[in-house]
Automatic annotation (TrEMBL):
<dbReference type="Pfam" id="PF14226">
    <property type="entry name" value="DIOX_N"/>
</dbReference>
<feature type="domain" description="Fe2OG dioxygenase">
    <location>
        <begin position="162"/>
        <end position="268"/>
    </location>
</feature>
<dbReference type="InterPro" id="IPR026992">
    <property type="entry name" value="DIOX_N"/>
</dbReference>
<dbReference type="InterPro" id="IPR027443">
    <property type="entry name" value="IPNS-like_sf"/>
</dbReference>
<keyword id="KW-0408">Iron</keyword>
<dbReference type="InterPro" id="IPR005123">
    <property type="entry name" value="Oxoglu/Fe-dep_dioxygenase_dom"/>
</dbReference>
<dbReference type="GO" id="GO:0046872">
    <property type="term" value="F:metal ion binding"/>
</dbReference>
<keyword id="KW-0479">Metal-binding</keyword>
<comment type="similarity">
    <text>Belongs to the iron/ascorbate-dependent oxidoreductase family.</text>
</comment>
<dbReference type="GO" id="GO:0044283">
    <property type="term" value="P:small molecule biosynthetic process"/>
</dbReference>
<dbReference type="InterPro" id="IPR044861">
    <property type="entry name" value="IPNS-like_FE2OG_OXY"/>
</dbReference>
<protein>
    <submittedName>
        <fullName>Gibberellin 20-oxidase, putative</fullName>
    </submittedName>
</protein>
<dbReference type="GO" id="GO:0016491">
    <property type="term" value="F:oxidoreductase activity"/>
</dbReference>
<dbReference type="Pfam" id="PF03171">
    <property type="entry name" value="2OG-FeII_Oxy"/>
</dbReference>
<dbReference type="InterPro" id="IPR050231">
    <property type="entry name" value="Iron_ascorbate_oxido_reductase"/>
</dbReference>
<keyword id="KW-0560">Oxidoreductase</keyword>
């Protein structure tokens, strides 16, 4: 198995050039199967929109603490809202950040307010269809997972709403400045449990995000202007039986300046069964890791086995277990001591 040499940068503009589209697909295939993280540029989201949203974050996080707590995550059984400093745990250790999580509890409200997101739809739809091409499956195969009412799972004539499932989540992260010579855990080593794909904008130039190589070493994912970072979630890795990689990553709290980031977690319907996803992944893809498993060259992540555990029938049940572990106050309030 090859190690991660560097995080690749993929230019989505190549998809428009028939002579270069194959090159882009080769790069994407390598990133999906061997890295699990990538940068994308020319993604179609206007920079002025990204900059406008980013500029609001300092004001949002420097509101009076009591004002922010009016939106406390402890008031939401869906784990949405504001999470105070050091209130989330990863690997049993506190994460030194504040965050807001927003998604959809009422679909009709979401649809009414969907207009500001229109500019971002095209690039997410394009990227998902490129993933399908990289897997050599019909374009549009995944569309029905984002709109379970769709009549066809293999049509390329989908609408933007196919990629606006209520299970998508947008998060605003704030990592306060650290004193000189001190470093803490911004977010501990983890894989993204709650999403199919994650699209991340790193605000500013502060270095904090790392991904883990197969040998255990850490490789920086530095901010690059004009790009978004993309990584795979647990559901993606589990659906491909480990062929595509959901890479372990972390955030170090070490900057002497405040740091912000905006991840978008592209989810799947929470009542969707993982077997429904696996059924459209080609056997040739799902078999990629089996020989390596047999030869002892690669070991399946035990958490993937948990994700595939038949006791957790739907993706939503697996995601809920992740939130319960990470947000204990909210979990105890709504789900009781027995969840532990």
């Amino acid at each position: 198995m090859s190690s991660i040499r560097k995080i690749p940068i993929l230019d989505l503009k190549l998809a428009d050039d028939p002579a270069k589209r194959g090159l882009l697909l080769d790069q994407l295939r390598d990133a999906l199967f061997n890295v699990g993280f990538l940068y994308i540029c020319n993604h179609g989201v206007p920079q002025d929109i990204i900059d406008a949203l980013s500029s609001k974050l300092p004001t949002l996080f420097h509101l009076p603490q009591q004002r922010k707590r009016e939106l406390s995550k402890t008031k939401s059984p869906h784990f949405l809202g504001f999470s105070d400093y050091a209130q989330e745990t990863t690997q049993g250790k506190l994460d030194l950040r504040e965050q807001y999580d927003i998604a959809t509890e009422l679909p009709e409200v979401y649809q009414k307010d969907a207009t500001p997101n229109e500019r971002g739809r095209d690039f997410s739809k394009l990227f998902v269809h490129l993933v399908e091409e990289a897997f050599s499956i019909p374009i549009g195969t995944f569309d029905s997972f984002f709109n379970k009412n769709s009549d066809s799972a293999v049509s390329d004539s989908t609408t933007a709403s196919d990629f606006l499932s209520p299970q998508h989540r947008l998060r605003f992260n704030f990592y306060p400045a650290m004193p000189p010579e001190q470093e803490g855990q911004g977010v501990g080593p983890h894989k993204d449990m709650a999403g199919w794909l994650t699209f991340l904008h790193q605000v500013g130039t502060e270095r904090a995000l790392d991904v883990q190589d197969r040998d255990g070493s850490w490789i920086p994912v530095d901010p690059i202007p004009g790009t978004l970072v993309v990584n795979l979630g647990y559901a993606f890795e589990a659906a491909t039986e480990g062929a595509a990689r959901a890479t372990v990553h972390r955030v170090r709290a070490r900057s002497q300046k405040d740091r912000y980031s905006i991840p978008f977690f592209m989810g799947l319907p929470l009542d969707l069964k993982l077997s429904e996803v696996q059924n459209v992944i080609p056997e040739s893809v799902r078999a990629m890791r089996r020989k390596e498993l047999e030869n002892g060259e690669w070991a399946i992540d035990k958490k993937i086995e948990t994700f595939l555990d038949p006791r957790w029938d739907s993706i939503g049940e697996s995601v809920l277990r992740r939130f319960i572990r990470g947000y204990k106050k909210t979990a105890l309030k709504y789900y009781g001591q027995e969840v532990y």
